[in-house]
């Protein structure tokens, strides 16, 4: 079993910033001076960029390499963040995305010069529609949240055309924060419905909240407890009967491939997170992509331009007067779309179906290993993620936060903590399918060891982490007196 | 936990100190404890009207934002201008230096809906029990399963 | 090709631990009617070699800047990217980590983001900057939404028609669903700049903000002084949008003009064109507006032993806490691209940024001169520009094919967005356009 790390001597110090390194006049970049520049009017020209770094190339490389070594990442540590799907990011995707025939394309070049790119996009649209059981797709949104906004705008446009865009969106208490935030951005009021004790939405609850002022219900399936919303078809009926539409937050699609298609559940619109289910790298916070898939009756509202194949070649069309318009510049996060496409053709139907099944196997395995020691948030069967709470450990005054910080000492990135909000002290564990049994065993052993420590030496857990580059940081201070940039006079 | 005697308390965790026509308002120790370290306070302006049961201010911790609801209606006479610079005062002295606003009440009858220190202390106990009850139901379900394991 | 490591023995052992005997038992609780229809109808998986072949075949059907001469700007720019940039962002510690919610093991990402925020402030001359948003277009939309939060009670937004057409489109899309905002377009003058007089006439106490490109879509560097003055008189906020931030290494930055919110597209700063994405939107403002900023913010603090560290801060603005009252719905952003820009700006540094900006300006000026002198093209606008300019090209539709056969894309036709500039091209020249290319460009224009 892995032992927790002891603090590394001398390694616990903060690195200097680029502004605190280098020397005046230094640069890591060589380019000869160009003669003949006609000076611009002096009132339009700036002085030097005060404070900008002056470092040599090796200095810069060393700086960022050292910084990288302060990070946990999938390729170094198990990273079971619930609802984030931290699966392996295949290297082959990085290689193909860097082909000049993809990376050195200009979006405003004439369509006849980017036929390969347009073919890829159209093909990807079809693939995502097939996987999700929907009909039409837009690849424009840059992330899940932008996808949500786009999907809600499509819903709004459709209802507006029917005579009334309506005023409200129903959002479950287990929803990700982007759901209500996107609703507000779309001009809607949010109505919350509560899940039952097992974290599932009941049709009766929706029935009570549903009327002709509600445009749509947003639902995540499986939900943020990793549990299948078994009433989804009945709930969709309730919403549809009163003229509303159903939006699915597809963040947890990794649980469903080849198992159940949202299109068969009564869903009208959904978004997919390519940086979750389809392996594109998380990058420390993006870039991702949030394609939106809709049923046929919503096709005309999708963002423009749309790509179509005509007479053997691909072209862009903007003649969709009912379209919600454009949500992002150019084609979306094309480089990410290329990676997701490579991943999908790489796995194929068999690989995608296997991926979801193994994701479920891994999550259920971890759940079994921990459920005697940690309190489970729901007794419903879990799919690709399981949620525990700190109830048992709170008896010793040890919280979810403490457990998470102590896991760092064992060399694991913690699960998602304190989400969903309906679960007090939530610990959401999503192993994903790319982890070995041995890794899961090691993780479970660490969790059990921490539970033991909580009983026998709670102080050790409460003061963790001990072996990371910095200890627990004063977040209150950061919020009270925000220092959001380096400034020379402060040094 | 403290429940100072001379004050009145609202269900939304505010306290009121009445000085003739003026109500001094703040949030209780229970409230600041739930929030954690206060990092930012948003206060109304002097002269603004506050309406009973409507939010008039917001208190932010690192991880949460809480609306503060007016226990009485009136006009803001004074605001505690040390709070923007030192929001942690609410944690350190919620009933004293952590006061938020002083309001000239429009209707002293508003005070009738507020609780005494004793009533508030009991109210807090009931809240805690209610949360505990819900937990206990789940606990029972879980214990039945656990018994098989043991 | 699949990445699941489970052997049959693994599966058996794990199932046994769970108390099941078949994988399918894990999904038996899903309604049968759904399971029956769930088969994915796609080809089976491929080997890595087959994937590479397939992707290379698709890539070969595209004209890339490696083989073609592009004189294309319009919001995405072809610049020299130091090899060190890709080397750093390819490090898996950066690319495969998540959003830094556990700061103790994310100091790499957080420190770099803090450096990024600082660099953007320095480049734009503004006081505070966030960790980035999706792109320049959504940054422009978010700037308007921010102005709406700050200017309670005001309902109108004035947007210059000389701002990038796609950006104007995205702003309109974002605002369409809010019934308390009205969008008004400000025309541009014969000089290619926002009509300051018209603007002054349209400004009143109902206008929350003015949005203008700097430089604008035509490459024209606008004099922001009269616009700033007019905004001051009516209490409107001024927001600028910069699609080519390399220009700010040479030009008077937005902060020096007294701009309230400065946003733009960061792709020029070390991110490959990639058909327009991913890049990133940068977003900066005056310090007093910090609590209204959308997106993530990284702040400096200390740990229990006084060690400096960085954390995500002022998070109560964001969706995961504030939910429906959040300043934006943004969650995943464009972090790795912002990191690329951070490395780029660090490598070029103060000297390199200035040098490359001057090279761009000089080359663009020279090219424009040649095209006017040798090919008889007529400038659409006079006045200062950075690396893009508009020239009138008579009979463009007929001449086009000659360029394509020479593997040149000489510019962007403006006909689609500006009918009055139907026969004009937006031409961009950067340090990546060699002297021979510019010669060839002029020659091809000359041949009729």
Write the layout of secondary structure elements.
The complex is a heterotrimer of chains A (491), B (150) and C (448).
Chain A: H1 57-68, H2 91-97, H3 100-103, H4 115-132, E1 136-138, H5 144-161, E2 168-172, H6 178-185, E3 189-193, H7 203-209, E4 214-220, H8 232-241, E5 245-250, E6 269-272, E7 292-294, E8 306-310, E9 313-317, H9 334-370, E10 375-376, E11 386-389, H10 391-394, H11 400-409, E12 416-417, E13 427-429, H12 437-456, H13 458-462, H14 475-480
Chain B: E1 8-9, E2 14-19, E3 22-27, H1 29-35, E4 38-42, E5 49-50, E6 55-61, E7 65-69, E8 74-79, H2 89-92, E9 101-105, H3 117-149
Chain C: H1 8-18, H2 32-36, H3 48-59, E1 69-70, H4 83-89, H5 92-95, H6 107-124, E2 128-129, H7 136-150, E3 156-160, H8 165-176, E4 182-186, H9 196-202, E5 207-213, H10 225-234, E6 237-242, E7 261-265, E8 281-285, E9 298-302, E10 308-312, H11 319-322, H12 335-375, E11 378-379, E12 388-392, H13 396-405, E13 408-409, E14 412-413, E15 424-428, H14 435-446
What report would you give on this structure?
The complex is a heterotrimer of chains A (491), B (150) and C (448). With 491 residues, chain A is an alpha/beta fold. Chain A has a domain of 255 residues: Type I PLP-dependent aspartate aminotransferase-like (Major domain) (Aspartate Aminotransferase, domain 2), CATH 3.40.640.10. Chain A has a seven-stranded mixed β-sheet with strand order 1-7-6-5-4-2-3, with helices on both faces. In chain A, a hairpin with a 2-residue loop joins β8 and β9. In chain A, α5 crosses α6, α7 runs parallel beside α8 and α9 crosses α12. The two termini of chain A are 45 Å apart. Chain B is α+β, with helices and mostly antiparallel strands. In chain B, 29% of the residues lie in helices and 29% in strands. Chain B folds into two domains: 106 residues, OB fold (Dihydrolipoamide Acetyltransferase, E2P) (Beta Barrel), CATH 2.40.50; 35 residues. Chain B is built from three helices and nine strands, in the order βββαβββββαβα. With 448 residues, chain C is of the alpha/beta class. Chain C folds into three domains: 52 residues, no CATH class; 109 residues, Aspartate Aminotransferase, domain 1, CATH 3.90.1150; 261 residues, Type I PLP-dependent aspartate aminotransferase-like (Major domain) (Aspartate Aminotransferase, domain 2), CATH 3.40.640.10. Helices cover 38% and strands 14% of the residues of chain C. Chain C is built from 14 helices and 15 strands. Classes of the chains: A alpha/beta (491), B alpha+beta (150), C alpha/beta (448). At the A-C interface, α1, α2, α3, α4 and α5 of A face α1, α2, α3, α4 and α5 of C.
């Amino acid at each position: 079993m892995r032992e927790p790390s002891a603090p590394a001597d001398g390694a616990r110090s903060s690195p200097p910033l680029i502004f605190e390194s280098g020397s005046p006049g230094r640069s890591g970049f060589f380019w000869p001076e160009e003669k003949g520049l006609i000076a611009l009017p002096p009132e339009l020209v700036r002085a030097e960029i005060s404070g900008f770094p002056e470092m040599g190339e090796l200095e810069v490389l060393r700086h960022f390499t050292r910084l990288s070594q302060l990070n946990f990442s999938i390729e170094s540590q198990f990273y079971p963040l619930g609802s984030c799907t931290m699966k392996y990011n295949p290297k082959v995707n990085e290689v193909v995305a860097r082909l000049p025939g993809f990376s050195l394309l200009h979006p405003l070049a004439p369509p006849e010069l980017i036929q390969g790119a347009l073919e890829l996009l159209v093909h990807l649209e079809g693939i995502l529609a097939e996987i999700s059981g929907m009909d039409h797709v837009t690849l424009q949104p840059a992330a899940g949240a932008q996808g949500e906004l786009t999907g809600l705008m499509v819903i709004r446009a459709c209802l507006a055309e029917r005579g009334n865009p309506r005023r409200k969106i129903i959002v479950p208490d287990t929803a990700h924060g982007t759901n209500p935030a996107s609703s507000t951005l779309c001009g809607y009021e949010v109505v919350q419905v509560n899940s039952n004790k097992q974290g599932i939405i009941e049709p009766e609850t929706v029935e009570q909240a549903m009327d002709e002022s509600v445009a749509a219900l947003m639902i995540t399936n499986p939900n943020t407890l990793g549990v299948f919303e078994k009433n989804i078809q009945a709930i969709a009926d309730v919403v549809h009967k009163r003229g509303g539409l159903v939006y699915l937050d597809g963040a947890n699609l990794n649980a469903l491939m080849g198992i159940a298609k949202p299109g068969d559940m009564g869903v009208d619109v959904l978004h997919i997170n390519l940086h979750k289910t389809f392996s594109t790298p998380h990058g420390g916070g993006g870039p991702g992509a949030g394609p939106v898939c809709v049923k046929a009756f919503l096709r005309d509202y999708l963002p423009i331009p749309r790509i179509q194949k005509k007479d053997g070649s691909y072209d862009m069309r903007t003649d969709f007067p009912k379209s919600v318009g454009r949500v992002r510049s150019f084609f979306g996060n094309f480089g990410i779309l290329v990676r997701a496409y490579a991943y999908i053709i790489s796995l194929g139907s068999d690989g995608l179906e296997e991926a979801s099944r193994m994701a479920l196997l891994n999550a259920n395995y971890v759940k079994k290993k921990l459920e005697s020691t940690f309190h489970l948030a729901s007794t419903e069967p879990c799919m690709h993620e399981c949620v525990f709470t700190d109830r048992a450990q709170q008896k010793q005054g040890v919280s979810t936060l403490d457990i998470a910080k102590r896991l760092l000492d064992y060399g694991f990135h913690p699960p998602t903590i304190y989400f969903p909000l309906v679960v007090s002290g939530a610990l959401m564990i999503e192993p994903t399918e790319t982890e070995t049994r041995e890794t899961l065993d090691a993780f479970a052993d660490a969790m059990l060891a921490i539970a033991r420590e909580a009983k026998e030496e709670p102080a050790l857990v409460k003061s963790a982490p001990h072996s990371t580059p910095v200890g627990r940081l004063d977040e209150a201070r950061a919020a009270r007196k925000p220092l959001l940039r380096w400034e020379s006079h402060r040094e | 936990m403290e429940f100072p005697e001379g004050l009145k308390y609202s269900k939304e965790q505010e306290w009121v100190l009445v000085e003739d026509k003026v109500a001094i308002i703040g949030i209780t120790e229970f409230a600041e404890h739930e929030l954690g370290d206060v990092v930012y306070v948003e206060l109304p302006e002097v002269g603004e009207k506050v309406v009973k049961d409507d939010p008039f201010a917001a208190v932010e911790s690192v991880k949460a934002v809480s609306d503060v609801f007016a226990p009485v209606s009136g006009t803001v006479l004074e605001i505690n201008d040390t709070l923007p610079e030192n929001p942690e005062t609410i944690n350190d002295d919620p009933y004293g230096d952590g006061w938020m606003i002083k309001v000239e009440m429009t209707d002293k009858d508003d005070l009738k809906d507020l609780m005494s220190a004793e009533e508030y202390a009991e109210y807090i106990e009931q809240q805690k029990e209610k949360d505990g009850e819900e937990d206990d139901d789940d606990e029972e379900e879980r214990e039945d399963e656990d018994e098989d394991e043991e | 090709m699949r990445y699941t490591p489970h052997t049959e023995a693994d599966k058996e052992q794990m199932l046994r631990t769970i108390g099941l005997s078949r994988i399918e038992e894990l999904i038996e609780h899903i309604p049968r009617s759904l399971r029956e229809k769930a088969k994915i109808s796609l080809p089976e998986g491929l080997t890595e070699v087959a994937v590479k072949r397939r992707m290379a075949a698709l890539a070969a059907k595209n004209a890339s800047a490696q083989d073609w001469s592009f004189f294309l700007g319009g919001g995405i720019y072809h610049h020299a990217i130091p090899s060190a940039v890709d080397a750093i962002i390819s490090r898996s510690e950066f690319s495969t980590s998540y959003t830094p919610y556990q700061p103790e093991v994310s100091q790499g990402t957080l420190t770099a983001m803090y450096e990024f925020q600082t660099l953007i402030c320095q480049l734009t001359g503004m006081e505070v900057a966030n960790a980035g948003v999706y792109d320049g277009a959504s940054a422009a939309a978010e700037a308007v939404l921010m102005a709406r939060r700050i200017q309670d009670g005001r309902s109108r937004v004035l947007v210059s028609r000389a701002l990038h057409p796609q950006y104007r489109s995205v702003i309109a899309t974002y605002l369409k669903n809010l019934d308390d905002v009205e969008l008004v377009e400000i025309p541009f003058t014969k000089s290619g700049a926002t009509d300051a007089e018209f603007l002054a006439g349209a400004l009143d106490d109902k206008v929350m903000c003015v949005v203008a490109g700097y430089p604008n879509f035509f490459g024209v560097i606008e004099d922001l002084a009269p616009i700033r003055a007019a905004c001051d008189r009516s209490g409107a906020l001024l927001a600028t949008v910069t699609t080519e931030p390399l220009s700010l290494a040479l030009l008077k930055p937005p902060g020096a003009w007294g701009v309230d919110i400065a946003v733009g597209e960061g792709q020029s700063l070390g991110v490959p064109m990639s058909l327009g994405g991913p890049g990133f939107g940068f977003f900066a403002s005056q310090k007093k507006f910090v609590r209204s900023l959308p997106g993530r913010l990284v702040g400096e603090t200390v740990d229990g032993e006084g060690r400096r560290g960085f954390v995500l801060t002022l998070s109560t603005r964001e969706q995961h806490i504030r939910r429906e009252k959040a300043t934006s719905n943004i969650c995943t952003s464009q972090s790795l691209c912002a990191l690329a820009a951070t490395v780029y700006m660090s490598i070029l540094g103060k000297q390199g940024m200035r040098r490359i900006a001057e090279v761009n300006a000089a080359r663009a000026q020279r090219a424009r001169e040649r095209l006017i002198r040798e090919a008889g093209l007529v400038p659409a606008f006079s006045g200062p520009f950075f690396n893009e300019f508009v020239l009138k090209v008579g009979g463009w539709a007929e001449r086009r094919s000659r360029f394509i056969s020479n593997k040149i894309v000489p510019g962007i036709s403006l006909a689609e967005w500006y009918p009055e500039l139907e026969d004009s091209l937006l031409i961009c020249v950067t340090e990546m356009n060699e002297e021979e290319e510019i010669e060839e460009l002029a020659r091809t224009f000359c041949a009729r």
